[in-house]
């Protein structure tokens, strides 16, 4: 990455060197709306009309380092996750490589790398991708590309500080329980292969801006605001955070001002153990970002004040309510006579009130293990019925996919175009949102080609037919 970028022919000598990739401007300007690096790279690949993996494999990974083809392929696969926006050396190397390729120098600010010297890296990066639907809706209304905020990638942030709604997981928000096949599209994309873009469902291609946001708790909104302010302070005053140790000065100051030097009362106010607070106060351990946000919230200060040890005005604020502990559910159905339970079990199976053993156990208020011992034959009937229902649903889904595949095939043939697999899959996805596995699409293509009179071997690459040679031999005149 230290080699200078080359200038093309006719490039002015006094002009800066041309970048290898488009110098796309990141979105956002503050801690609550700044774009993360993963979202930036996905939009960059769309501008180049390339898949993110292809662009990463060809243009970004060679700038990071040299290795085997397997290593390069593995490095390129990180473009689809949040690791490139994290706090590790991987995110730092990706930011430096993209800076070199695009001619920019600020892409490190779109990762969590600046937080590495301030807070421990544990519990920092979210394990899943999340979003705020109202932010996406505002992106669409303002005619700017939808993008993921860096704040959403922080694990302890559970709400959007701008719209006071909960952050939703991408893998859960794009499923429709009422219609799992999603045949009624609410929004279309220009290209069905742009499923990787931010704000677009990877399952059915719809816009995630159509989701309804759930109101968030006031504590979650305040925590998100504290973290956003910390990101702003790190970007605007990075020199203030150099060589910053554990927040011992602030904790001692808060203990004296708010709790008259009683460390136990301070720990009880925060809802943590006295040993943990003593470790933070003595400097032996460092609190994670969620704990720093908790300290700042309960003391009425900013996270930057806690880290820097600023002596600001403080006030007590109660800690957020802790979730109740999980407990084992106590079932009382087993106390009833077994004959009574068996008769009721038979009625449930005959009437069809339960479609699985789990539902029958819940109706009888017993466990599934007790249900198997109560009547193995009836339990087996429920299990077989559930398996048959799963097989029937799979057959219905396969028939539905094949019907849509045939419709797209016939439409492409009617346009006098070659019905290749890629065109058919793209047409089906744009119409219905259905996707196919590679092997499944090949089987469907063979099934629809035979009745349509299309040669099945014409589109298969790598297979040579000897029919033309045989016809030449048959038409060759006999040598008498």
Could you please describe the fold and organization of this structure?
It contains 19 helices and two strands. It has a two-stranded antiparallel sheet with strand order 1-2. It has helices spanning 37-47, 52-64, 69-77, 89-102, 133-141, 170-173, 218-236, 248-259, 263-270, 274-282, 289-299, 303-308, 338-351, 357-364, 368-374, 376-414, 421-432, 438-452, 467-475; strands spanning 130-131, 168-169. The protein has 480 residues and is mostly helical. It has four domains: 20-217, no CATH class; 244-308, 434 Repressor (Amino-terminal Domain) (Orthogonal Bundle); 333-374, no CATH class; 396-452. 48% of the residues lie in helices and 1% in strands. The radius of gyration is 30 Å and the shape is flat.
Low-confidence stretches: 1-8, 172-193, 452-466, 469-477
Form type: flat
End-to-end separation in angstroms reads 74 Å
- The helix-and-strand class reads mainly alpha
How many structural domains can be distinguished in the coordinates?
Answer: 4
What's the main sheet like? 2 strands, antiparallel
- Number of helical stretches of at least 4 residues: 19
* Secondary-structure element pattern, one letter each: HHHHEHEHHHHHHHHHHHHHH
Rounded to an integer, what's the Rg over CA atoms? 30 Å
Q: What would the average pLDDT be, to the nearest integer?
A: 82
Quaternary assembly: single chain
Strand order in the sheet with the most strands? 1-2
What is the strand tally? Answer: 2
Strand fraction equals: under 5%
Helix content: 40-55%
């Amino acid at each position: 990455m230290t080699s200078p970028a080359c200038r093309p022919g006719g490039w002015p000598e006094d002009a800066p060197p041309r970048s290898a990739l488009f110098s796309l401007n990141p979105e956002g300007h503050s801690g609550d709306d700044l774009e993360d690096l993963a979202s930036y790279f996905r939009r960059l690949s769309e501008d180049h009309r390339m898949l993110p993996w292809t662009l990463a494999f060809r243009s970004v990974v060679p700038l990071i380092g040299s290795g085997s083809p397997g290593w390069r392929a593995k490095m390129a696969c990180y473009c689809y996750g949040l690791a490139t926006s994290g706090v590790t050396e991987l995110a730092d190397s990706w930011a430096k490589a993209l800076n070199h390729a695009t001619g920019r120098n600020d892409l490190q600010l779109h990762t969590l790398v600046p937080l590495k010297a301030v807070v421990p890296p544990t519990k920092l990066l979210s394990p899943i991708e999340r979003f705020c639907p109202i932010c996406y809706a505002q992106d669409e209304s303002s005619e700017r590309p939808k993008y993921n905020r860096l704040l959403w990638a922080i694990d302890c942030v559970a709400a959007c500080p701008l719209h006071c709604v909960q952050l939703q997981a991408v893998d859960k928000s794009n499923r429709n329980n009422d219609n799992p096949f999603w045949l009624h599209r609410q929004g279309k994309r220009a290209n069905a292969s742009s499923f990787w873009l931010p704000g677009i469902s990877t399952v059915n291609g719809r816009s995630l801006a159509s989701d309804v946001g759930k109101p968030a708790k006031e504590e979650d909104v305040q925590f998100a605001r504290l973290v956003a302010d910390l990101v702003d302070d790190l970007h605007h005053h990075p020199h203030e955070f150099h060589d910053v140790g554990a927040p011992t000065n602030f904790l001692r100051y808060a203990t004296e001002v708010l709790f008259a030097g009683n460390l136990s009362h301070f720990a009880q106010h925060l809802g943590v153990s006295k040993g943990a607070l003593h470790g933070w106060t003595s400097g032996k351990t460092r609190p994670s970002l969620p704990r720093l946000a908790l300290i700042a919230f309960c003391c009425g200060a900013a996270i930057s004040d806690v880290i820097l040890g600023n002596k600001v005005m403080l006030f007590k604020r109660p800690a957020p309510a802790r979730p109740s502990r999980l407990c084992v559910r106590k079932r009382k159905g087993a106390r009833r006579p077994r004959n009574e339970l068996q008769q009721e079990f038979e009625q449930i199976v005959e009437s069809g009130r339960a479609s699985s053993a789990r539902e029958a156990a819940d109706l009888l208020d017993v466990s599934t293990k007790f249900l198997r011992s109560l009547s193995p034959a009836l339990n087996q009937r429920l299990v077989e019925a559930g398996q048959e229902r799963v097989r029937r649903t799979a057959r219905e889904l396969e028939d539905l996919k094949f019907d849509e595949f045939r419709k797209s095939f016939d439409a492409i043939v009617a346009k006098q175009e070659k019905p290749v697999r890629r065109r058919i899959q793209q047409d089906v996805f744009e119409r219905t949102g259905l996707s196919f596995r590679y092997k499944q699409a090949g089987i469907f293509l063979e099934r629809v080609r035979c009745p349509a009179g299309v040669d099945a071997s014409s589109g298969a690459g790598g297979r040579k037919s000897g029919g033309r040679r045989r016809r030449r031999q048959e038409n060759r005149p006999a040598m008498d």
